[in-house]
Design brief:
CATH class of the largest domain: Mainly Alpha
Mean pLDDT: 93
Order of helices and strands: HEEEEHEEHHEEEHEHHHHH
Oligomer: single chain
Helix content: 25-40%
Number of strands: 10
Structural class: alpha+beta
Strand content: 15-25%
CATH superfamily of the largest domain: Transferase(Phosphotransferase) domain 1
Number of domains: 2
CATH architecture of the largest domain: Orthogonal Bundle
Low-confidence stretches: none
Shape: globular
Radius of gyration: 20 Å
Distance between the termini: 39 Å
CATH topology of the largest domain: Transferase(Phosphotransferase), domain 1
Strand order of the largest sheet: 1-2-3-4-6-5
Amino acid sequence: MVNASASLPDFTGKTIDGGRIKLLEVIGTGAYGVVYGALDTRPSVRPGGKRYAVKCLQRDLPPKQRRFQARELALHAVASDHPNVLTLHGVIEEEHYVYLVLDLCPGGDLFGAITERHVYHRNDALLKKAFLQLLDAVQWCHDRGIFHRDLKPENILCSEDGSRLYLSDFGLATKEPVSRDFGCGSSYYMSPECIGKEFDLGAYSTRHSDIWSLGIILTNMITGRNPWRWATTDDECFSAYLHNRDFLQEMLPISKGTNRILRRIFTLNPHSRITIPDLREAVLKMDSF
């Protein structure tokens, strides 16, 4: 797949929305778009202007991709009212390009906070505060019939100190509670039923698959590591977990309480998986992860 950064022009210095917003510098690139830091240039805005992130997308797409893009924008708009979902302020369409005006998160993504800045390392209070926000954001989406399907640290933005999280990137989100779109998401975070190779149920619950992904993210935040690469029996670590439900506690620096929570998340039967409200209650009771 060719990254959009290779096919989109350089928009640095361009103004959009009738000259109101000026694109300043590239702050991120991905498969489908390029993100710029941007400034609201109106005199009525606070001195120095308000900063945004603007995601630039191709508008000239094949019909199928165009439908996916429209779905992403519609679902993000519905979810955007929650304080822990990245706010979508507006969508600006030109002849060939679409611009999403989003909140700017100077702390970058959760992946960087975990692996580069280590903001949650031995900070149980901060970890609990942040993860509860993520649970609330995902539950908000689920309550509105939106299932993310690509929950991972790269799709979660945060404040500089890691105390505030914002769910983002609804490119794979769906309104379908049951899906046959196997292999949807990122390998480390996919549930066994979403992978669909060994535990093929014919279709899978997108709600329960999101909960599995939340368990991997919690493991990331606590340990800085992934428990396995693929939730399949040919993955040595996952196979070990299936044979020994305490494998994660033996291999990772996690408490007994955390191990009990992860065992309730990482169940092969999706419908016996812990619910988000029950997961929230269990995390609230934790003193040490």
